[in-house]
Request: fold
Amino acid sequence: MQTVFSSIQLRHAPVHEISDGQVKAAVETPSRAEAVLAQIRDRRFGSVVPPFEFGPRALRRVHSQSYISFLETFWERWTELGRDGEAFPFVWPIRSLRQEPLPDHVDGLLGRYSMDAGTPLGEFTFAAAKASADTALTAAQLVLEQGHPAAFGLCRPPGHHAGVDFYGGYCYLNNAAIAAQWLRDYGASRVAILDLDYHHGNGTQSIFYERSDVLFLSIHADPRQEYPFFLGHADETGEQAGTGFTRNWPLPYGTGWTGYEPALEEACRWLVVYRPDYLVVSLGLDCFEEDPIGGFRLTSEDFKRLGARLARLNVPTIFLMEGGYATATLGINCLNVLQSFEE
Ligand code: SP5
Ligand code: ZN
Reply:
């Protein structure tokens, strides 16, 4: 299987994040991608190719122009105030506050375009996020236009928490949504997204919530107990034309394979019924038992079982990396999922 990756993605190198009431060392680091690349080379797992540069159109099919412009111009606005480190928001336009007019001040804009204070914006964040989206698009292109049965976009930064006009959860551009929309625009009638990250993919769900042409399925930690806390419950099943085309399997803290497998089996049955032309897998690896921020207990062997089950669906599949922070084992777990798709 081919892997798509650009070294531009490494330029986004967060130093800190705010979590557990502390300024902590960032967990979404370039070393995550480097660990997966090292494993690809060690296991001789196919070639690694750079992404093509897609124009701004593919991004605009998912994200608002004002949000993209904010990301693009952010560093200039930040540094013109004499600031030089990575930025965090500290005020949000929640209930009772006005959405409009947009503030002029960058501190206001940071709050308007974010969902949490745990996601740093730095000098190269936009460039890396754009390269990450190009990586997702190129993986989709390998499958759509070159007929590969599967491809792997080694996306970083991840994407599934980012919505039409906000970033959060270490995500800035929604790689899976951008790839799924591109597949729709260039030939597919139906695309399914299966989100396996430990955290609910709130951004992806919200982007397609009222649509039937992109099915969204997600298995994740119960939002009553876990980030992102405000989306991902079982009763969220889509609205309007999208009614019935979103499905969530929130699972309790401590879930291992015996609790996970039945949810995966149900999701696979939905996929069989939906008959997508393409499957996009939001491949978070933070369900791993040793993940520093996750609370599930999947083992490295379980990731093989997971991949083998997906391969049995026999649908052209685009894998896009999302979370997963146990860096020492990240490459092994990732390739354990992908190995069943080797040609
Ligand atoms: C893509 C992705 O996986 N994003 C995850 C964002 C999670 N952000 C919240 C992190 C909170 C960490 N709390 C750790 C508690 C255990 N010490
Ligand atoms: Zn996650």
Remarks:
- Residues 241 and 281 are 23 Å apart (CA to CA).
- The chain has a mean pLDDT of 98.
